[in-house]
Write a structure and sequence with these properties.
This protein has about 450 residues and is an alpha/beta fold.
């Protein structure tokens, strides 16, 4: 909290963002325009947006029990604080696929960001660049790949010119440029697949991520109620990566003019699952194209599949259940993380996703063996409120939350004290987290 206490360390002083907010309130009366308390933020986003926009990123499969299981799993793991530890200088840095990054947090791939702000994916891509954090672009995005890359570069340029406590230049080794991930929804036309990969690679996306759990959308009653499939509506957004692709447009441009759903139905959520053989083909093509850059498989929920991913040649996996949006009544992702980590040990990079809301959640996933954590709905909720400013506020708040959690809990270094440290946690098999209505009464 003391602005004069600035010991030199490897991480930006994220915790000072709390003081910055307090100072604005005390000196000028300027308060944040929306709450970053996760439940309150979700509720205010619902009021801010129309139902179709809100439910695109917030609908869950079935009764929403998998989404609930994600939060219950975090609730059951409890942090064990340590006393009298010198955390004055903290180290939140980590290395991800050869890139040294200031904190183990990624912007998860979420489609159709134009539902939340007119600039769509350009907003989070720019903020990720400013913060030096990896950004993941979805094939269902609503801005061309090349434009998103330029926005990410623009954000990185702002970071490099800044003299603030948020500046991070990666001087401790590795590449200071944070990795850009391209998240692939792979259709069954290999020529289009290769075109998308080539565009991503040429635009500086040097990690390819294949999603395995969304060949078609899960059964989401809140979307059914609204017939909420934006691609079929006249003012369609979400086709921009397709309409900017020369191969797709050469083959299907005329059809797209008659059927706005052609891109999404043909190349994204096509309803025809692939197999491990096709994954091996894709890995081979990506490795040839990118000179051996990493390939990540997203959607792993079992130790057996994690082992198969390693055997198939994957460099990493994302342990996720698509935030509870695909299979109702499934396991919470954090429930299966320990057994997946045990199964693959240090053979692959493990990224965790699903249900992350707070700095404590990030801490818990790292302690259970994840190398980094993806955050999705939080940044979408922020940008829905105030575009760049809202997205920045939410992500800086999350980073401050993680930094402060480590400070007050007595853990100095992500790599040395938190990662794979089950002694930092205690499991409680009973109890469930209170719902939003109970939070409101507390």
């Amino acid at each position: 909290m003391d602005p004069e206490n600035k010991p030199k360390g490897p991480s930006p002083h994220y915790s000072l963002y709390q003081r910055e907010v307090f100072r604005h309130g005390g000196e000028t009366g300027q308060l944040p325009s929306f709450s970053v308390h996760p439940e309150e933020l979700q509720e205010s986003t619902k009021k801010k947006l129309g139902d179709r926009a809100y439910f695109y990123a917030n609908s869950n499969a079935g009764l929403g029990w998998t989404d609930r299981a994600n939060r219950e799993a975090f609730y059951r793991w409890r942090i064990v604080p340590r006393a009298l530890v010198d955390t004055n200088t903290r180290d939140l840095t980590t290395t991800l696929f050869g890139h040294r990054i200031p904190a183990p947090i990624l912007f998860a791939p979420i489609g159709i960001n134009k539902l939340y702000h007119q600039q769509g994916e350009l907003v989070p891509a720019k903020i990720a660049g400013e913060l030096g954090l990896p950004y993941c672009l979805s094939t269902a995005g609503s801005q061309p790949i090349e434009d998103v890359a330029r926005a990410n570069d623009a954000g990185a340029a702002i970071k490099n010119e800044s003299n603030s406590v948020w500046k991070y230049d990666g001087n401790n080794g590795g590449n200071a440029q944070s990795p850009r991930f391209y998240q692939m929804y792979m259709g069954h036309d290999d020529e289009i697949t290769l075109s998308l990969m080539n565009r991503a690679w040429k635009s500086g996306f040097d990690v390819l991520m294949l999603t395995t759990d969304t060949w078609q959308l899960g059964w989401r009653p809140t979307d059914i109620n609204l017939a909420n499939y934006t691609f079929y509506y006249p003012a369609c957004v979400g086709n921009e990566i397709g309409t900017s692709d020369p191969v797709f447009m050469r083959k299907h441009g005329e059809e797209l003019a008659r059927d706005s759903g052609k891109w999404i139905d043909h190349s994204v959520w096509h309803g025809k699952p692939h197999t491990w053989d096709k994954v091996r083909w894709l890995i081979g093509e990506w490795k040839k194209m990118s000179n051996g850059r990493p390939f990540v498989l997203k959607g792993i929920q079992s130790a057996a599949d994690a082992i198969k991913a390693h055997q198939a040649g994957c460099d990493g996996i994302v342990v996720t259940n698509h935030a509870g949006r695909q299979v109702d009544g499934a396991v919470g992702s954090l429930e299966v993380l320990p057994e997946i980590v045990e199964a693959v040990e240090d053979k692959m990079t493990i990224i965790f996703d699903s249900g992350v809301r707070t700095g404590s959640d990030v801490f818990k996933a790292l302690a259970l063996g994840a190398h980094a954590v993806e955050v999705g709905r939080l940044y979408v909720w922020g940008m829905a409120h105030e575009g760049e400013a809202g997205c920045r506020h939410v992500m800086k708040s999350l980073l401050a939350d993680l930094d402060i959690t480590m400070t007050v809990a007595g853990y100095r270094s992500i790599k040395e004290d938190v990662h794979l440290n089950k002694d930092a946690l205690r499991y409680n098999p009973s109890g469930v987290p209170p719902g939003p209505s109970e939070h409101a009464r507390l």
